[in-house]
Design a protein that fits this description.
- By secondary structure, the protein is an alpha+beta fold.
- It has a single domain, classed as paralog of FGE (formylglycine-generating enzyme), CATH 3.90.1580.10.
- It is about 10% helix and about 20% strand.
- The strands form six sheets. The protein has a five-stranded antiparallel sheet with strand order 5-6-9-17-12. A four-stranded mixed sheet has the order 15-14-13-16.
- A hairpin with a 2-residue loop joins strand 5 and strand 6.
- The longest helix has 17 residues.
- The radius of gyration is 19 Å and the shape is globular.
- The chain starts with a strand and ends in a 7-residue tail after the last strand.
Length: about 350
């Protein structure tokens, strides 16, 4: 296992009793920090050491993504957001990343304790949800999409055509909501004496996210396991051969040629060890888009936190349960409509690391 020495105070909490590591104590890749949210709800983050990685994708990867197997729509700007070529990035500090996306049950504890109201639940709020009346794209006549903005829907009811579970990733939450969760968890853990100065819970930066997604690989591969889509079977939840609830059809257009068991979201970490990358992260590709801290730059991601001065749009990463294979790679990145936008395909993963300043 890779090891590194941290130069600031940190908390290592095991599966049982926790202990506080002192300055200079050696940390091991994969060390678990466990936050107790109350009511027997916990949130695990996993230690990721410093290192290097390649951000972005090659022209060959973009061609695959928009080809017959990748299935992404050719001729759009989307792939250009990954940069012209992969760029070597340096992660010169260690941090902890949520093993999974934040779940419905974890988010509920935050809402209960903080009395928080999400953007979608505010008086004029709405969130992008699946329209159960949708049957097809009707591509040769009038194109119709399965998603539309809906008032009265939120993380409590994302309009899924199936029962909501506490171990589903929370969706219909915005960049603002994700930041509020991190601020609450920081205060909660610090008040309990489990979080020393110099660390905070927050959304990951875009560089932290892609470094964590690639799992320690220094190659520019399409997925964290390599370039072959066929090796993704049993590893991630994307558009595949799964019937929509109460129907005899799957999502149209390109899909993985197997059943992953879920037409919509999967429970977090459903795929177990096979679904873990080299850092032990689950669901880094697929399941739900993960909103990160950076503001979107259409020319590509940044090594340092990217902050826009006006008209900023948060970045989301990783693809989702509805995406074709070419849209659920390590390098895929999109800009959201704004900091208060939410969608039933979007969630977030929490990071524990050094503070990062950004305006509201």
């Amino acid at each position: 296992m890779r090891r590194t020495t941290l130069t600031w105070l940190c908390v290592i909490v095991g599966l049982g009793a926790g202990s506080v590591a002192t300055r200079g104590q050696e940390l091991i890749q994969g060390a678990v920090n466990r936050a107790s949210l109350g009511s027997e709800v916990v949130l695990d983050t996993v230690y990721i050491p410093p290192g290097e990685f390649m951000m972005g994708s090659t022209p060959e990867e973009k061609l695959w993504a928009t080809g017959i197997e990748g299935g992404a729509q050719p001729g759009t700007e989307r792939e250009s957001y990954e940069g012209e070529q992969p760029r070597r990035m340096q992660m010169d500090y260690g941090f902890w990343m949520g093993r999974t996306e934040v779940t419905v049950g974890q988010f509920r504890r935050f809402v209960e304790e903080a009395g928080y109201v999400t953007d979608a639940e505010r008086p004029d709020g709405r969130t992008q949800c699946f329209n159960p009346k949708w049957t097809s794209y009707n591509l040769t006549t009038q194109v119709t999409h399965p998603w539309e903005p809906m008032p009265g829907k939120s993380w409590r009811d994302p309009n899924f055509p199936l029962p909501l579970r506490d171990d589903f990733p929370v969706v219909c939450v915005s960049w603002t909501d994700g930041r509020a969760f991190g601020e609450w968890l920081t205060k909660h853990e610090r008040a309990a004496g489990r979080l020393p100065d110099g660390l905070e819970y927050r959304l990951p930066t875009e560089a932290e996210w892609e470094y964590a997604c690639r799992g320690g690989s220094q190659e520019s591969s399409y997925f964290w396991w390599g370039n072959e889509l066929s090796e993704g079977e049993g590893r991630f939840n994307i558009s595949a051969v799964d019937f929509l609830p109460d129907r005899k059809q799957k999502w149209p257009l390109a899909s993985a040629p197997w059943s992953d068991g879920f037409a919509f979201v999967a429970p977090v970490d459903h795929f177990g060890e096979r679904g873990h990358n080299g850092f032990g992260m689950a669901d880094m590709c697929g399941n739900v888009w993960e909103v990160v801290l950076d503001h979107f730059d259409p020319t590509g991601g940044h090594e340092a936190l990217n902050i826009a001065t006006e008209n900023y749009r948060p970045v989301c990463r990783g693809g989702n349960y509805f995406d074709v294979p070419g849209n659920a790679r390590c390098a895929v990145r999109l800009g959201l409509a704004g900091p208060h936008y939410s969608d039933s395909r979007d969630g977030f993963r929490i990071c524990l690391g050094p503070p990062r300043s950004i305006r509201k």
